[in-house]
What we know:
Layout: E1 3-7, H1 16-29, E2 34-38, H2 44-48, H3 60-64, E3 75-79, E4 82-85, H4 90-99, H5 107-112, E5 121-125, H6 132-140, E6 143-149, H7 154-172, E7 177-184, H8 191-204, H9 217-221, H10 229-232, H11 237-257, H12 273-278, H13 285-289, H14 294-298
Parallel strand pairs: 1-5, 1-6, 2-4, 2-5, 6-7
Antiparallel strand pairs: 3-4
Helix pairs in contact: 1-11
Bound molecules: adenosine-5'-triphosphate and magnesium ion.
The site of magnesium ion has 5 residues, from helix 1.
Amino acid sequence: MARVIAIANQKGGVGKTTTAVNLGASLAASEQHTLIIDSDPQGNATSALGFAKDPARRTLYQALILGEPIERVTIDAQIDRLDLIPSDKNLVGAAVELISMENREYRLREAIQPLRDKYEYILIDCPPSLDILTVNALAASDSIMVPVQCEFLALEGVSELLDTLARLRRAINPSLAIEGILLTMYDDRTTLSKQVAADLRSFFGAQVFESVIPRNVRLAEAPSHGMPVMFYDIHSKGAESYIQLAKEVIVNAQKRVGPGTERTDQGSGTTGTSAAAAAAGSSGAGSSSDGGSAGPGTE
Ligand SMILES: Nc1ncnc2c1ncn2[C@@H]1O[C@H](COP(=O)(O)OP(=O)(O)OP(=O)(O)O)[C@@H](O)[C@H]1O
Ligand SMILES: [Mg+2]
């Protein structure tokens, strides 16, 4: 049964697509059947995987709006064990058309139902907004991964996002867990990066992934070559960091299904955060107290 993870942050340019593509490739390399769903009309994940614009190609649009079977829009990403549901600018129309449709928040959830048995991981690359496409992604997901750029005001941004999430979660998907907060574009030569990382860790505790994605030029170059960084420069820090992240995601999943265990907060940080981290494994954590999202705000 696939774990469906929405990669979301309404802030633009924080590394959502880079994470979807490179975590996806790294999970596939770790023997996990993985599907990347490009749910952003910008189509950046689609092009980063080497698919040039092609008006004839079926995209998520056909499945979401026209009700075509999801298998018909799913393509082989030309990497072992990695598939893609592509996107293109037509998806802008989907965002508009969805508004007047019945069951509009749950179209994606219904559409991907038949795929849940086929993959170990389904990653959804969201657009930089909390529009109806992102709402569909969050309604369809087991958890949300939030990439955060290590920069000024990052803490405020994440806190706001988690507050919004708490509301969304109550309204559309009470069992949505926090997969983790991912520090991206980390530059260990700057005091600011270090400070931001330390602040986020002390505030959100074990909800922050141990793996950190460094600012790395290879990560920025790889998309223009149409390939994940591990095929572009396997020895780069960028490739290493996403392989590390994939391991962490897999280990966390194993902990959740382990005998009576769930992912627990390791002590640091706030009390509320463990509830969200564990929400996937324990019932009711999310609905009774807003899960972890409410935690940081209550301190
Ligand atoms: N760790 C990194 N090091 C260097 N460059 C990076 C890194 N992560 C992302 N980038 C670059 O930063 C830009 C924004 O990254 P990306 O497209 O992944 O962000 P995004 O959150 O998906 O953006 P959007 O909100 O527009 O969808 C891209 O040019 C990408 O190549
Ligand atoms: Mg993007």
